[in-house]
Fold this sequence. Notes:
By secondary structure, the chain is α+β, with helices and mostly antiparallel strands. It contains 17 helices and 17 strands. It has a five-stranded antiparallel β-sheet with strand order 2-1-5-4-3, sandwiched between helices. The chain has a five-stranded antiparallel β-sheet with strand order 7-6-10-9-8, with helices on both faces. Strands 12-13-11-16-17 form a five-stranded mixed β-sheet, sandwiched between helices. β16, α17 and β17 (515-517) form a beta-alpha-beta unit. α1 packs antiparallel against α12, α9 packs across α11 and α14 crosses α15 (407-423).
Amino acid sequence: MKKLETSYVMKEDLCDKGRSMQKESRCTETVMAENERLRRQIDELQGLEARCQRAETALAAIETRNQLLSDAAPLGIFTIDAQGRVTGINRRGQALLGPLMDGDPRSANLFDDASMGNAGLTEDLQHCMTLRRPITVEHSHADRQGNGFWLRYYLSPAPTQDGAIDGVMAIVEDATDLKRTEEALRDSEKRYRQLFQSAPIALIEWDVSQLKAHLDLLRASGVTDFDDYLTQHPDAIRHCWELIKTVDYNQAFLELMGIADRAGPKGAFLPTHADDFVKMAREVILVTADGNTAVEREASIVTTSGERKIVLGKSLAVSGHEETLARVAIALLDISQRKRAEAALRESERRFREQAFRDGLTGLYNQRYLYGSLATWAERAKANGTPLSLIFMDLDHFKRIVDTHGHLNGSRAIQKVAQTINRCLAEPAYAVAYAGDEFVVVLPGMNAQAALAKAQEIRSTMNTTAYELEKGVVVQLRASFGIATFPEDASDLKRLIAAADQALFAIKGAGKNAIGQYRSA
Length: 521
């Protein structure tokens, strides 16, 4: 009997030891799995840090190129933030503004600078930000020696990514010659003529009296809306233009228009481009009908050699001829170079902003853009009561591609998949290169069902595409997808991203190459 009891106790001990060993084995597997997950996260973070460093290096290079372009510009350029602090200024800008200020213009606050406030520029800068549109202003200044001069400022509000205004970009040019010419036109006929012929700015003088008389007759016959009249009678534009006669012009005008000798225009000069002519002629006629010839506008002209130029034209009735308009002087300043500089600066700024939010490998948006823009879309979704869906994507067996074909072909695979995703999207939807072989697709306005359909489209396109990484290397690429929708699956952005990631993680653990939608526990 004792032997049986002893045998039974030994069996129980063996069972307890077996269960304990099984439990320890499961714990060991859990710890190993957690260690592997942490290792992957460390690898991903290291990869992200390396990409961030490369992006910062690229941004620094872009900023250097921007500074070189800015310093090479023939016009003064400076930027300020919303508090008036100068955030950037080129060499020409320092040369123009430096004589007006007590300190270094590179570190000045224009809102606090007394000379700028007295000239009225501070108010104009604030006005530009309030209006949220470009404005052009002129101000007279005096340097420390008391020498007076005029500066013209072209002020443009600087918007942020979300549309807010956080400063002003200004282009400055010395307008002293133009202002002096304008003032001299009012002095005396003799001096006017002397300056007219010797002025470095292109000048032409028109006799607009016949056009004014014709428009007065039309008004007497019942025409009240000349804009509508010219629309209804387009042939009248050329007839009205032919009523303008040229009285005089200077050498600078001949040079501007590419005219070789003094046998210049008898009638009003005509741009050789039909569309430009119609637009300019129409505006001149409407200004004359309004009776106010003291106007300033930009125009596109084509010279006799076919060269297109942008000019800033300012017209003014010669003193004593305000009623008849028998003599109207037009000053034409060639601003083609300034316009090219403005366009180059705007393009450089656009590229800089674009590069800051783009992934260097795929060309997709990066994480910086994702988190900034996602907050805006979430606010819109809340305000409008519309959904916002996210798709998290992760390439399946990507390590196998890298191990078999190398890192370069791994990068090519990521690029190819990014192109596939982009082809499946239409604005406002957009894709983000999230980390390594992971992607995020943002679907504003799409509910869970629509997001599922979009994920199925991307997955189907990938599954039916043979990706050629290099000549002779063709692979099949697959991905797993996780979907979450705001506000059904999450109440804020952090939870929305986590929900989509959780849905993806479930698919990766269940066999891959499939689509999962978030399901709350």
